[in-house]
Amino acid sequence: MLRNEEIYEALFDDDAFSALPNTLASQFGARSGLINWTSSAGNIENLAHSYFTHEFLGPYAARFVKTDPWQQCAFFPHRINTIFSAEDEVPQSAFRRSPVYVDLIKSIGDDTFHCMGGGFSTPWGMGAVGLNRAERAGPFTRNEVSALAAYAHNIRNVLMVRGELSGLRRSTALLHGILDAFATAALVITANMRVLYLNAAAESIITLGDAMKISMGLLTARDAEGQSRLNAAVHNATLRTQPATANVTLNRFTTSVEVTEPYFTSVTPLASQGISGALLVFRDPAAVLPGHYLELQRFFGLTRAEAKIAIALSMGHSTAQIAEHRGASEATVRGQIKAIAAKIGVSRQSAIAVAVARIPPIRSV
Question: What is the pLDDT of residues 91-113, one digit of tens each?
Answer without folding.
Answer: 999 999 999 999 999 999 999 99
